[in-house]
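Troubleshooting entry. Yesterday's outputs looked truncated, so today I'm pasting the complete records for two proteins to confirm everything comes through intact. If either block looks cut off, that's the bug. Protein one:
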Amino acid sequence: MLHSHLTTLNAVSLVLNTFAAEGLSSEALLAGSGINAADLSRADPRITTSQEMQVCANALALRREIGLELGRRMHVSAYGMLGYALLSSATFGDALALALRYPALLGTLFDLRLEQDHEHVWLTASNYRDRSALAIFNAELCMASLKVICDDLLGQPLPLHAARFAHAEPGYRSHYQATFACPVQFGGDHHGFAFERHWLERPLPLADGVTHRAMAERCRRQNTEFTGRQAWLARIRQALARQLSQPPGLEGLARQMKCSARTLRRHLHDVGSSYQELLDELRFERAKQLLAEDRLPIYQIAEQLGFSETASLRHAFIRWSGVAPSHFRS
């Protein structure tokens, strides 16, 4: 699955900082993502979800429970203007409603909902849309970070009634108990946690009407820009993905998109990408898919991806992933 969703470098920076104390180099965690150390200092650090998830996959290979740990470190301040809009909301319920109004700014890979009954409110996450191998990791990251956001907004831990997850119980259940501090069930229909309904009416300690209105308006504008960029990038990716065996080049792709090469280059730069980076990302995703299917010999995969010879694919794949195509397949 190819992802056009844009996000920021917050999660990537969090991964690098988490493992830095263990002496692990950033190169190992950034391998195959197309992100380099210089990108971390950009003023507008936009990347694609696919890039972010590659870094997370590298982290997951080192520690299976890392999703919960990263979620516990993802404070509301990591969400930029949206975070300030949430903090300045009048009530806890108002803040949650605003967060769910702008999923693109929240950076979620799930559909989030608030479901109320007479006594409790469930904050649920369903319809996951990313790599299946990262489904549990992303569920842990999503729910743990939402719990931290709730705690940050209230200025105190939100007591939970229960938590549940759609996947089977992992071997590190104790980490769930430490994260949510409530009974946890596995094998449900979706992910979520519940708290008493009266918390929705709780005034927030940092509420400020003037600041909130200003931040909410900026969030509305940013969401419009953000989703517009996502839709545009999706069209670019779809057009290029159809032509991997014979890439059209920047000029050819620009003609297809009915714009000049200069305009296309500028737009790609604005979303933190370039023609070559986009082509590499699409080739890498497709190469992994074809290698995993194990139907075609590697020389035919090279042809399908527009490489003139197998050695070119091999060199590129090692640069993207750190291993040769044959090693990845085995």
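Protein two, checking that the full record survives here as well:
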Amino acid sequence: MNRGGAETMIMNLYRNIDRSKIQFDFIVHTEDKCAFDDEIYKLGGRIFRVPTYKGTNHLPYLKNWEHFFKKHPEYKIIHGHVRSTASIYLKIAKKYGLITIAHSHSTSSGNGLSAIAKNVLQFPIRHVADYFFACTKTAGEWLFGKKTCQKENFHIFKNAIDAKKFVFNNVVRSRVRKELRIEDKFVIGHVGRFHSSKNHEFLIDIFKNVHKKNDNAILLLVGDGDLQDTIRKRVYNLGLDNNVIFTGVRSDIPELFQAMDMFVFPSLYEGLGIVLIEAQATGLPCVIANTIPKEALITDNVKQFSLTESPKVWTEAILKRMDSYERKSTYAKIKDSGYDIEESHRWLQEFYLGLVEKDETRFCI
């Protein structure tokens, strides 16, 4: 439960759902304390821990889940967001009488041996779960197959945000830019973990070209991850270390979006790209890869480009947008598109309660 896209969506739902009727508890694959843990406890949730699945610990992994469901017969529903082992834990959950939901948030397992292993593990999900959720139709078909996504138990569930928090505010913008000492800068922003899928190396190449054209440009990188040191070295080697700000993990994402002038998102793949929804909600012009699902393109402020295009092509688009853009509120468009949490949390609440046909229950997330 760190600040990733799916985790942020889950917390948006948890904060808004009627907790007098529904309470979320969380099963996580880590012993580490995570960014949302304190808030989960504050909202009345519990956190349980199982070991990370490594293949070699298959039997202990099974025993952990068996032990959990034996010890906790109070649960009625398990909503699985970890897809790689969903066919394992959802099958065990069904054995103990739980209603099972599998949720797809992506369109790729990445590359290498681990990706192959994940693809093999997750294929049986389509034959195990009772209900299937996905952030887009593409994400659903990728994980569950086209036939499953044509059935009545498949639902597209939009990764909604608390849109009111992202409404553009010039006062907030000025304050945050002052705090970051970027008052007079042209600020290009990116929010995402430092993972190969986010394509930070290409982003740095784009920014290198932007900075050549406009030495007043700053790149604001929000997030953390395994590749952060690699990207820091690349920035240093290119002589851009005074022009790139690494904020680390932040809890004030809506305010950081206010401080930006442009959002650039060159991901190799995304299930949806919830940060793009957030960027549009603050009225930012966005230059993104054509790998991002069309469902995430809500406003007219988004321009898509192929990742096969050179950084120079992306640079020209960024500079052109910089010269011709007037920032406006987009709250109404976000709300009308169905990506506001007010709509989605009500739908999910009714869905859960309809499954169990009672007013009080707990859910494993």
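Both blocks look complete. Sanity check on protein two: The chain has two domains: 5-160+340-364, 163-336.
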